[in-house]
Specification:
Layout lengths: L2 E4 L3 E3 L3 H9 L11 E11 L5 E11 L4 H7 L3 E11 L4 E8 L6 E11 L7 E11 L6 H32 L17 H10 L4 H6 L4 H5 L24 H8 L4 H21 L8 H10 L4 H17 L5 H4 L4 H6 L2 E6 L5 E5 L6 H18 L1
Antiparallel strand pairs: 1-8, 2-8, 3-4, 4-5, 5-6, 6-7, 7-8, 9-10
Helix pairs in contact: 1-3, 8-9, 9-10
Length: 376
């Protein structure tokens, strides 16, 4: 069975160009990611105007597995091929990674994307999707798939921390902003390029050594500016789900649980569109409740939600609120009602227990009517 991981959107509150400068510092190795032993550039091409760059790397990774597995497979390191497609004009970086080792037995495909925030150009978004398919691995296919996805999800947590770390390092060096790529700014004479490098405190030799780095390709002029501090609102009626929203409104979730929530939302969205394009997809709080009820099994949670929606339709639950009329006795003698929400967003129902004749209300309106009152 193919294992899939899909992350929510991670948001860096820094411009795309600064994030790219920090991203380049991850290579060839960085102490924050000890699993990566080495990375060698096998191909590196840049377009004539400098706006596009394609980089291929061959990465050497340490095998993090129990001793028994290492003895069975007979290797301590594995190799991956990574392809980066940087477009400074569109402000996007697409990354594809596949395994070279055991490629006939295992298929691993990872696709990551950095791009400018659609609502705030001074922020950067990141998302990733990965699949793991073990076809034949000495009879340990199922165990290896589970272990592989668990370790992969743990590794993804470090990605944002590493970028944040290198951004802090850049700021310590006085680099708090990198200018965006400009078409007319890329055509310079050698004299102008030398003057620019010298004016920034960099020797011509140092500028030449850094010419292949993304931070220099983006711009040769560094200035200090303050970044935006207020996050624009993200609409919740689409499939965009960012990590900050999860932490604030959904609680602490593990990377695998976040991935299940993203996949579950897409599954329900596709099913709703196929059956009835006018139906609204439940919000993330509702979806998470169904996922937790079925131990984050997407198939079981989908079945449970479909049965629930079917029951609501059969009993016209969604029409109760619009059709319900409060009995006269309740309006006069029932001292309670809904009153906004608490600080955590939960609805509040205020009830003056000392002034309520419970037996009289039950005798007058009946238990069903009283239940409808507190339900709607």
């Amino acid at each position: 069975m193919v294992q899939k991981y899909e992350s929510p959107v991670r948001i860096y509150k820094y411009p795309f160009e600064l994030v790219m400068a920090a991203y380049e510092r991850r290579f060839p190795v960085c102490p924050q990611m000890p699993i990566v032993l080495d990375c060698n550039i096998t191909e590196d091409t840049v377009s004539d105007d400098g706006s596009k760059r394609e980089t291929h790397r061959r990465c050497k990774l340490a095998v993090e597995a129990p001793y028994l597995f290492k003895k069975i497979i007979g290797v301590d390191v594995v190799f991956f091929i990574q392809k980066n497609f940087l477009d400074l004009k569109a402000r996007t970086l697409n990354i594809e990674a596949t395994n070279e080792t055991f490629s006939s037995r295992i298929e691993i495909f990872e696709k990551c994307r950095y791009y400018a925030h659609p609502e705030n150009p001074d922020w950067t978004c990141f998302d990733q999707v990965a699949t793991l398919d073990i076809k034949n691995f000495f009879g340990f296919e199922h165990s290896m798939e589970k272990m592989g996805m668990k370790q992969y999800s743990q590794t993804t947590q470090k990605g944002k921390e590493i970028i944040e770390f290198f951004i802090v390092e850049l700021k310590k060096e006085g680099v708090e902003h990198v200018d965006r790529w400009k078409e007319d700014a890329t055509i310079k004479s050698p004299t102008d390029a030398t003057a620019t490098a010298t004016g920034n405190g960099t020797s011509p030799t140092g500028a030449a050594n850094n010419a292949n780095s993304t931070s220099t390709a983006v711009s040769s002029q560094l200035v200090v500016v303050s970044s935006s501090s207020e996050k624009p609102p993200l609409s919740r009626d689409n499939s965009i789900l960012d990590a900050d929203y999860i932490a604030k409104y959904l609680g602490q979730l593990s990377p695998l649980q976040e991935s299940k929530l993203v996949q579950y939302r897409k599954r329900i969205e596709e099913a709703t569109t196929a059956s009835d394009g006018d139906s609204a997809v439940p919000d993330y709080q509702t979806l998470l409740r169904f996922l937790r009820a079925r131990d984050f099994s997407i198939d079981k949670a989908t079945t449970m939600l479909q049965e629930s929606l079917q029951w609501r339709a059969e009993h016209r639950i969604d029409d109760i609120l619009s059709e319900y009329k409060t009995p006269v006795v309740v309006e006069k003698y029932f001292p309670g009602g809904w009153h906004h929400h608490d600080k955590d967003g939960r609805p509040l129902y205020v009830l003056r227990l000392g002034n309520m004749d419970v037996k009289g209300l039950l005798k007058s309106v009946g238990e069903d009517e009283l239940l409808k009152l507190v339900s709607v």
